[in-house]
Amino acid sequence: MNSEFSKAQAGSYAFIGGGQMATALISGLIRAGLPPRAIVVFDPDAAQQERLHASLGVDVGGRVDDRLAGAEVVVWAVKPQVLRQAVQQASAHLRAPLHISIAAGIRCVELSGWLASARVIRAMPNTSALVGASVTGLTAAPEAAAADRRVAQDVLATTGHCFWVESDERLNAVTAVSGSGPAYVFHFLEAFQAAAQAVGFDEVTARELVLKTVAGAVQQAQSGDPFGTLRERVTSRHGTTEAALAQLDAARTAQALKDAVAAACTRAEALSTEFAQQA
Ligand SMILES: NC(=O)c1ccc[n+]([C@@H]2O[C@H](COP(=O)([O-])OP(=O)(O)OC[C@H]3O[C@@H](n4cnc5c(N)ncnc54)[C@H](OP(=O)(O)O)[C@@H]3O)[C@@H](O)[C@H]2O)c1
């Protein structure tokens, strides 16, 4: 329970966009002690508003209105393509809050310019925020105060682990590793399940075997031993695991993963440049 959260006034946290990431963050904040009445969410989608109000008890609105003026923290949780327009719609109602953007690819310098504010923090959570297990990178506009960084970290930490990077460029690397990372893992799980089915297990059993095997290995890896050491320990010479790993090596899976992360990084950089040119 965060004591700062429990003292928050009505409407002091505003969300622009009430989609799945906003919902994950709002749920985290409420779990951490922020009263639902302290949160107002603006989203043009009536179904989204109804869902948020009914399930979390927060105040909701369609078009941004003067309730935004009371916000001390504004979280921008819309798609990057509509962020600039959302800022334009909101600007007449903004006082001088702390801005936290979770939109991918839009740099602090553009955000600061659009919002006419140096109080800007960017966060890159991942989809595991939905289960309170996000890995979230944060970066701040150079002029953002230490107190603003602390508040942003407190907000994002309600959905998982947070760490700081020094620039938007590094946040592109975060996007490529932990931002897109859950999809790499799901891809592996999918392929592993298919492989289990190929040796005769039905779909449900294959899924369970794969999930429990991965969960057990992740638990073991918490020991802090290097991943390579853990791998070597289960690989006896001329054994079954060695035969399997030889196939993975022949298919260059490690290099493929390296290439995948590099491609995500390049794409994140390209998106940043695209948005910067539109600014
Ligand atoms: N999903 C992830 O894993 C992930 C991870 C890191 C960062 N992000 C970032 O998080 C942001 C939100 O992602 P999401 O998956 O939650 O998106 P989402 O589910 O599409 O939610 C965005 C919501 O914002 C609404 N919206 C559109 N224009 C608006 C406006 N002008 N004012 C207020 N609300 C508006 C949308 O309504 P309509 O649908 O009617 O347009 C939608 O309900 C994105 O920028 C994304 O890059 C996502």
Automatic annotation (TrEMBL):
Enzyme class of the recorded protein, top EC level: oxidoreductase
Keyword Iron-sulfur: no
Record GO biological process: L-proline biosynthetic process
Pathways per UniProt: Amino-acid biosynthesis; L-proline biosynthesis; L-proline from L-glutamate 5-semialdehyde: step 1/1
Keywords for this protein: Amino-acid biosynthesis, Cytoplasm, NADP, Oxidoreductase, Proline biosynthesis
Gene Ontology MF: a single term: pyrroline-5-carboxylate reductase activity
Residues where NADP(+) binds: 16-21, 77-80
Entry GO CC: cytoplasm
Superkingdom of the source species: Bacteria
Signal peptide (UniProt feature, chain positions): none
Principal location listed in the UniProt entry: cytoplasm
Pyrroline-5-carboxylate reductase dimerisation domain span: 169-270
EC number: 1.5.1.2
Matching SUPFAM superfamilies: 6-phosphogluconate dehydrogenase C-terminal domain-like (SSF48179), NAD(P)-binding Rossmann-fold domains (SSF51735)
Any Pfam family the entry gives: P5CR_dimer
Domain Pyrroline-5-carboxylate reductase catalytic N-terminal as annotated: residue spans: 13-105
The reaction(s) this protein catalyses: L-proline + NADP(+) = (S)-1-pyrroline-5-carboxylate + NADPH + 2 H(+); L-proline + NAD(+) = (S)-1-pyrroline-5-carboxylate + NADH + 2 H(+)
Localization, UniProt: Cytoplasm
Protein's UniProt keywords contain Cell membrane: no
Family, similarity comment: Belongs to the pyrroline-5-carboxylate reductase family.
Function as written in the Swiss-Prot or TrEMBL entry: Catalyzes the reduction of 1-pyrroline-5-carboxylate (PCA) to L-proline.
Name recorded for this polypeptide: Pyrroline-5-carboxylate reductase
Taxonomic classification: Bacteria, Pseudomonadati, Pseudomonadota, Betaproteobacteria, Burkholderiales
Gene from which the chain derives: proC
